[in-house]
Amino acid sequence: MELECPLKLKPRRGVMARVAFAVALVLSACLPAHLYAADPSSKLVAIPEDPDGIPEENGGWRRIPYSGTDESGRTVHSELYQVVGVEGVALAPVPEVIRSAMIDEMALAQPDETVVFALNAPIVDEIEHSLAIGQPTQALIDYANQDAEAIAAGQMGAQRGPFGSCSDSELTKDKRLQYTPNFSASENFGSGFSGTLTAQGAGNLDANGQIKLKIKRTRIFWICVPYGVRFQHVRVVGNLTLESTVTLSGTINYANPNPIEREIAKPFLGGVFFMAGPLPVYIGFNLPIVIGVEIKASITGQLQYRGGGRIAGSFDYLCTSDNCTGYNTLQTTSQNVANPIGASMSGRIQPSLYAEVAVRGFLYWEEIAYAQAGARGYLHGDLWGYYGNTCGDADQNGHYETVSALTFDLDWQIAVTAKADTFFTKPWKKTLWKSKQWHIAFWDLVESSALTPMIDGPQTAVVNTGTSYNIRMRPCWPYGDNVDYAMDWGDGATSNHSGSPAPPAWQPVVASHVWATTGPRTMQLTALRDAHGREFGKGRSTTRQISVDNGAPLNLALEALALASSTYCSTPGTEHCYDADRANDGDNSTALGGFTSWANGYGVAMPQWLELQWGRLVTVSRVDLYTSQGYPIADYDIEYWNGTDWIKAASIRGNTAVARSHSIAPVQTFRMRILAVAGPAHQPGYTRINEVEVY
């Protein structure tokens, strides 16, 4: 087969050059001429005039018949070329004068914008035939005479030559959209969910739908002829009310990352069939109603829950084939439903149900081009279950308790969504806006023992001395919202606290108390609620038995982990290292030697440090330091960590004492250190610490 490359492009600059070059690349393989040069005598076989009968596209274009009755009552039968994007413009069998005009139009589009044309096939045929015979056909003249704007544009452009561009014009059509949707549907989705999703609802839509088009014209033998339209946007402005109740019932056996949804109805809102000069144009609007479910699951479980909500407000959104912009004043309220929850499982399942109503505007058929904006009401469910003994030691008795939980949390949310498609591109979906989540309710289905909080702190306390405890939820608790607690100290005193359910070690939730008398005490910590609105109910308490006595203050250093900046070893790799853990082993002897003290590494520059770390927040008001006989630390600082920086609690210079006690202003911390600046005068590069006691 002999190949030709008939596309001839004028030199272009900037954006036009890039678009024209892209079209040229598509044709650079020199496709057979019959793919792009229309033969006026050849017609495609007639096909059924409904969307299901529309043939597949041929590289971004296709030709289809259609018919309808215009606004004057006249019945119109015609054919369309649908052309989308660079490939469609390059391959559509249209005259070069039209192809060149479409290239110019694409050059004006936004980057990555999908450009959609609907060309009147009989007019395109007449243009091709006129070019072939060297003069306008009578049919082409008749088409031009039906368009008043084309006549005027042709007269103004007559001096610019027989061929070229002609004035395009924009056309906007509006349609009042009023509808009262009522829907009821039940779907079995599969895809990891074996069960049924049922939705019922009603609402009211009162809006104005608008579609904006551009009428395309070209000059042929001094005649300005309209030949097609370009889809520009759909705009919907109005008010919407939607009430829906959604029920999910079945078995979920894995996490499905993608939403599962079904279109359950699409009532027709109305359309307009009109003549733009000789161009028959049809625009329509419908109301797609969708139900769906988004599922996250960590383990198989049985689930049934029901919930409902109401969306009401105004909206104004403008959608092109690639994007939507606008605003809304939609508000929502939840609805009480009977028997909202039933479940059994171990693990966590987070199903989100939704019902969505959208307004869709389209050109000729949805399969050519459409854009829509809609409102979606979500029901976010969260089912959590647990059974086992790996969820913490709440009362610090050395044994992890066996606990269980089965809870369900339900939230309500609304979103504004958008969607668009053309016959040649893949549809896109976007969420334009989401509200915050409103909490509906929290159910504890089995009086869950895993909701009991944890108390971390000493088993004994000294009378008239402050003692601190860290409080938190168990580690299996799945939520991160701040929790409110109530503490009963066992002596008639109570206190309230609030904070993270799983705080970092450097920022714990701390409860402190001073007991005025000695004896056994029973502390009781109760988790009340969290900031999201989950009310835990009664009985979510942990008790802890402690003893208050007159004994010596507790040396907190004994429960700390000792770390050092460096360590001296007389014989590397043996027990003769001056290890950091010798400084908090309970032996405050000041004897000289590696078996009783820590010392920094040989030749390491000062300052050097010894640090104590606790797994909880402690209150410190005194630090006692013991060094080796004959080797007191001359200059040093005592510092504590405040979560972000080291803060000086005491600074000592010129010290000669081997043992020294330091009273400091009480601080709460989980890290302290001795920062040695200089050792003794005869060995300033070495620091020896035999013991650190912290009270």
Specify the overall morphology.
Answer: elongated
DSSP strand count: 37
Mean pLDDT: 82
The helix content is: under 10%
The fraction of residues in strands falls at over 45%
Domains (count): 4
Task: Output the structural class.
Answer: mainly beta
Distance between the termini: 97 Å
Provide the fold topology:
Blueprint: H1 14-27, E1 61-69, E2 75-84, H2 85-91, H3 96-107, E3 116-120, H4 121-133, H5 138-145, H6 148-156, E4 163-165, E5 169-179, E6 182-187, E7 193-220, E8 223-252, E9 256-265, E10 268-276, E11 279-286, E12 289-297, E13 301-319, E14 324-328, E15 331-335, E16 341-345, E17 347-363, E18 369-388, E19 403-422, E20 428-434, E21 438-444, E22 454-456, E23 460-462, E24 467-472, E25 483-488, E26 494-499, E27 509-513, E28 519-530, E29 541-549, E30 561-564, E31 598-599, E32 608-626, E33 635-641, E34 646-652, E35 659-678, E36 688-689, E37 691-694
Give a verbal description of the structure.
This protein is mainly beta. It has 4 domains: 14-171, no CATH class; 176-444, no CATH class; 452-549, Immunoglobulin-like (Sandwich), CATH 2.60.40; 556-694, Sandwich (Jelly Rolls), CATH 2.60.120. The protein is built from 6 helices and 37 strands. The strands form 6 sheets. Strands 1, 2, 3, 4, 5, 6, 7, 8, 13, 14, 15 and 16 form a 12-stranded antiparallel beta sheet that branches. Strands 9, 10, 11, 12, 17, 18, 19, 20 and 21 form a 9-stranded antiparallel beta sheet that branches. Strands 30, 32, 33, 34, 35 and 37 form a 6-stranded antiparallel beta sheet that branches. Helix 2 runs antiparallel to helix 3 (96-107). The protein starts with 13 loop residues before the first helix and ends with a strand. The model is unreliable at 1-56 (pLDDT under 50).
